[in-house]
Amino acid sequence: MNIVVCIKQVPDVDDIKWTKENNLDRTQMLSKINPYDEWALDYAIKIKKSKSVDNVIITVISMGPNQAEESLRYCLAKGADRAILLSDKFFAASDTLVTAKILSCAIKKFVPDFDLILTGQLAPDGDTAQVPVSLAQLLGLADANHIVDVYKIDKNQTLVAQKIDNTIRMIELQNPCLFSVKKECDKSYVPKIADYIRAQGAAVERYGAVDLELQKEEVGFIGSPTVVYQSYRPVIEKNTIEIKENYSRTIMDFLLKGK
């Protein structure tokens, strides 16, 4: 079975930097693998270790700048078998639709015999949850989101648990299919030193627009129908009232005026 896991390197939300124009300054921020995507990888590893299907090969794919290779090597250390980086200056500023298009082209060309695609539910830097469903549509796959567990899988079918609000539903998908996860896997693997050493020596395949037979007008800012005009920081204002005497009467007056 061939499993593809799509991952994204995202800014560390605890280290956000802003430009004078109130835009995210990604060049000055630390980056890490999107936690939801790491959970997707953990589910793939769980399937591989379950022995429910034979000869599981996990391919991780990421679209991003050169530094995204760090996240891919981390995935190799965790247990992925193959890593693909889609990096090209023409990919910069691609919206969710174009990102899904680039990923779909790469999967069809470099992992054409895939059985299952796993992604994270969303990414904290965008929080749109649009790439997984767009990718499924472009590949003509059945898909399910908000997945919190994988119960059964074989060569032909996948049974997953979907949780929306307080309702859990069991969904059976015909392979090949795609699902996105929003809950951490119970059996995540923590890489050891030997795993990191092995991952550093492994090959990371690199492909650009030419390799995917995409024109520069189809990708990046030019090819994207969505435009983000501005990011902004919310302003939190708090009013403080200092009470020095007649506490109960002052509080009562304040509450009455509030009504």
Can you describe what's shown?
- The protein is α/β, with parallel strands linked by helices and 259 residues long.
- Helices cover 29% and strands 25% of the residues.
- It has helices spanning 35-50, 69-78, 96-110, 131-139, 193-201, 220-223, 247-258, and strands spanning 2-7, 9-11, 31-33, 57-63, 82-86, 116-120, 142-153, 157-164, 167-174, 177-181, 205-207.
- Strand 8 (157-164) and strand 9 (167-174) form a beta hairpin.
- The radius of gyration is 22 Å and the shape is globular.
- 37% of the residues are buried.
Describe the SSE topology.
Elements (H helix, E strand, L loop, with lengths): L1 E6 L1 E3 L19 E3 L1 H16 L6 E7 L5 H10 L3 E5 L9 H15 L5 E5 L10 H9 L2 E12 L3 E8 L2 E8 L2 E5 L11 H9 L3 E3 L12 H4 L23 H12 L1
Parallel strand pairs: 1-4, 1-6, 4-5, 5-11, 6-10, 7-10
Antiparallel strand pairs: 2-3, 7-8, 8-9
Helix pairs in contact: 2-5, 3-4
